[in-house]
Amino acid sequence: MNKALHRQRLSTATALCLVVIALPLASHADGAKKPAPTNPVWQEECGSCHIAYPARFLPAESWRSMMAALDQHFGSDASVDAQTADTIETFLVQNAKRSKSSQKAESSTLRITGTKWFRNEHDEVPAAKWKSPAIGSAANCGACHPGADRGSFRERDIKVP
Ligand code: HEC
Ligand code: HEC
């Protein structure tokens, strides 16, 4: 075997190992053990009207669609200049939820609160709770997750008002 081919085989083997190591990490939807990934531009632009919703709660396709229509963002104009949008989109896509093929169907949703994952995770919250004055909207994560603005949703910190 010539040297170049040997090297190539080796690096393919290394890449495969990395995939195997990375998969269990990526499938850990909660991610509470690692510090939440952050980016100053994203934090500032996407954290001004609501918390900067963590990228890991939506698949890349959702973030791309959202970033393509920021001027019509849930009835608000959240547009930013092209370079800023580029920085934010790259960050969101890199840290997005890795969707399984079975989840592809809902990949177009722009709402975290509209995903099946969110409904399952919150099935113990009574329907009327979401509309109570102290909460107002399911999108108001911080009402029940005091660490939401820092990307922390740990079960033991949850306090439903
Ligand atoms: C000008 C204010 C404003 C800015 C800036 C803004 N948003 Fe929003 N965003 C809103 C409003 C209003 C809603 C709807 C909230 C609701 O329904 O309670 C929303 C909702 C969302 C939701 C859906 C929440 C849910 O229901 O699951 C996501 C995700 C989101 N925004 C991401 C972003 C990202 C990413 C950025 C930065 C590029 C951003 N937002 C910047 C106003 C803004
Ligand atoms: C009305 C209060 C309330 C709001 C608002 C709320 N949550 Fe929750 N959340 C809960 C409760 C209660 C649980 C635990 C459910 C259970 O397992 O019994 C939970 C669980 C979670 C978990 C799993 C935590 C773990 O470690 O098991 C995540 C992640 C999460 N919520 C994210 C969010 C996000 C993101 C938002 C906003 C888009 C949000 N939540 C809004 C009450 C809330």
Number of domains: 2
Low-confidence stretches: 12-31
Rg over CA atoms: 19 Å
Largest sheet: none
Helix content: 25-40%
Number of strand segments: 0
Order of helices and strands: HHHHH
Beta-strand residue fraction:
under 5%
Count of DSSP H/I helices: 5
The secondary-structure class comes to: mainly alpha
Ligand identities: heme C
The backbone outline, from C-alpha atoms, is: globular
Mean pLDDT: 84
N-end to C-end Cα span: 67 Å
In terms of quaternary structure, the protein is single chain
Summarize the structure in short:
With 161 residues, the chain is mostly helical. It is 36% helix and 0% strand.
Could you characterize what this model shows?
This protein has helices at 3-26, 40-46, 60-67, 82-94, 116-121. By secondary structure, it is an all-alpha fold. It folds into 2 domains: 1-30; 31-157, no CATH class. Helix 3 (60-67) runs antiparallel to helix 4. It starts with a helix and ends in a 40-residue tail after the last helix.
Key terms:
binds heme C; 36% helix; mainly alpha; 161 residues
Q: What is the topological layout?
A:
Elements: H1 3-26, H2 40-46, H3 60-67, H4 82-94, H5 116-121
This protein binds heme C (HEC) (2 copies).
